[in-house]
Amino acid sequence: MPMEILKQIKYMPARAAGGCTDRILRVDLSRREINIEKLAPDFKDKYIGGRGYALKAIWDGTTGDTRYDSPENILIMASGPLGNEPGFPGTGKFIVGTISPMTGTFIDSNVGGHFGPLLKLAGFDALAVTGISKEEAVILIDGDAGTIAIAEAPKYDKETDDGALSYGERLLKEVNNGEYSDCLAAVSAGRGALHARYGVIHSLYYDRRRHRIRAKQAGRGGTGTVMRAKGLKSIVVRSSLPKANGNHPVDKAGVRAAGRALKQVINKADPTQLHLSAWGTTILSEYMDKFHIFPVENYQYGQSPDSVKLFAHVFLDNYFSHRLPDGCYYGCNLACAKGAENVALTRGPGAGRKVSVDGPEYETVGAVACMGIFDPQFVMEYNWYCDQYGIDVISTGVTTAFFMECLQRGFLTVDDIGYELKFGSIAAANKCLHQIAGGRGFGKVVGQGVARGKKWVAHKYAARHKATEDEVMAELNKFGMEVKGLEFSMYITKESLAQQGGYGFSLKGPQHDEAWLIFIDQVYQELPTLEDKAAALKWFPLIRTWFNATGLCKLHWIDVRNPEAAATDEPSKNLPTLAHYVDYLNATTGSHKNLQDILDDSERLYILQKLINLRQGKGTRASDQIPLRAMAPAFFNEYQSRADYYDRWLKQNGGARKLPASPKQRHKMLIERRKREYQQLCDAVYERKGFTPEGIPEREIVAKFGLMDEKAERLLGEMGV
Amino acid sequence: MKPDVKVIIEFLGMQRSATGADRIEMPITAKSRVDDALDYVRNKYPRLELDEGMVLVTVNQEIAPREQVLKADDTISFLPFISGG
Fold first, then answer.
1. CA A210/CA A320 separation, integer angstroms
2. Mean pLDDT of chain B, nearest integer
């Protein structure tokens, strides 16, 4: 089908050198302008790549008044200097960054696949899209032909056009004479993103082993909703340049050596540890359930006798394709991107069809358990429908579960919802899912997420119960699992103070890619003091931010423990493996950095993100507060479910010589202790990070990292710092 | 200690696949330690790798040093390192 080209330019793709092209492609959909920005040579030294480039673009190009659907909002996609190296595992990652419809501040979501690497081969470290297209549009970046175009989005049939997966798949074929190729990749957003605030962006790539297009998701914070708000349905990038050595590293042999060393660690350790290469991340369900971390029924209970129905072996035995190395980019020997073929849909508009499912990941399994459902077939279908509609499995599940609990606790009635949206009901959860994606019925409310859902419930309940909305909100805040407007990812934090901070201080909201300290704290007991926890809450977000700035997957470092780490002082940092990353960085870019240099580089980005949060009204201590359920059993039924454990905890940690006789008093005492602990943690962490007690960076910290420009000066002045 | 005094050793995740068992029992004496449980499992399942750098040992869901003395009905498991993706 011929596409109507709205604007096209010719260009000469820049070749990467030392991992970077020093070019950003800027596309303004309102003005139909396409420009190539050449970066100063020292830009990458300061902002690294990936998240750093996205942060800098948002800081410079938006204001405190910018909303997710403002024309000036920027949708940025960027790999990083270490992305695209098949000789080193896990280099397919790129970042999608923007102002979020959920949080109103910067969100970045990292995603695997081929798009980031191919964008770099086509000549760009980053793509920044602004404006709003009058017509639904696609962007075509063809490094082979040397053209970049904005085109009217082709129309096929309604089913194809509505689906984030189906539309991207069709487009990838159309632009390549009817054939799939691994020289092309796409991003796409679906119909669900038009109606829900938590639309995702798919990263679509051709899998030569499965002979089909596969999908990974930039899932958190509504990046797909921003994309559709811009009138943009898909972006395709093409480059036939060789991927091997595509970064033109300064020291090829050094890159090969670092990659070989890391691959050896993975090959040796993963099969005897989590074995992600066989099970994918579904293996986590069993361990989370065992340690009361599985988010059953809106995080009320960490365990269920039914959880075993969702353990990894169920998916391995019944769904996953066996013996297929499933890496999302070349050279990855961890290969955790599991998938299933010929899954028969039994529900929804696609009932009777057989589909390919990419997943489930642990988060999808957790989201279904969050709704009190333990049916693996429903997990598969939920996974596929969320993907096809283009909505986030996490926010969909957590928001649905919040409303289920509102019904359970009498904040809503069946009449309010239109049907009995109760925990464990597949029929109700399924109905809600399709309503969310279609913007119909109660789904319109659920599609707004927990933060806005709380306000909706408070308004309704207050009106008919002679209560104030503030009073109702105080109750809903106990179990509405969001911080800064973003829903929690799928881990219960009640028993890990460090991870309460891991979610609460996370700049984008409670997504664990900034810090995941539950096992280190709760199980391994490696962070016994407040100071230990505060130190970890500084160190881990910094190193994790670095991964998101460089185009790298974190799993090879964080989820495969190098056996040599056992002999180090801090085994959880897995420093022997990080040494391979430092070697890889220096070999690629020609730098001579050590781990501390990397942490310093990362801290600059962390502080810049904090400044953006402050500017957008999400940067102070008030925005770091977490729901009661994240720190304690919010209601008595939760306390009762583990009363012996909680009483023991009170004796060991509560400082009380004698516990109150009444269980309800003990529950109250527990809540008070936990609340106090969290505030103590806030104080300790802010001090450690160089922030004021209100969570605002001190001027010296901002200046130290070269970030004290006019805007930062004014902002900090307004904050009284 | 009576000869039928025992502990439970449970297998999680890939360990279950490797051993074909959810759990086994091991008889203990008053002096049996975590190390003895590791030796017991190694003898029974030589292909299961339980080196210190590869797994952590928990007793009743708490990390246990190798020299910890076992009590009747303790539950022992071998935990991979999980750091949350």
1. 12
2. 91
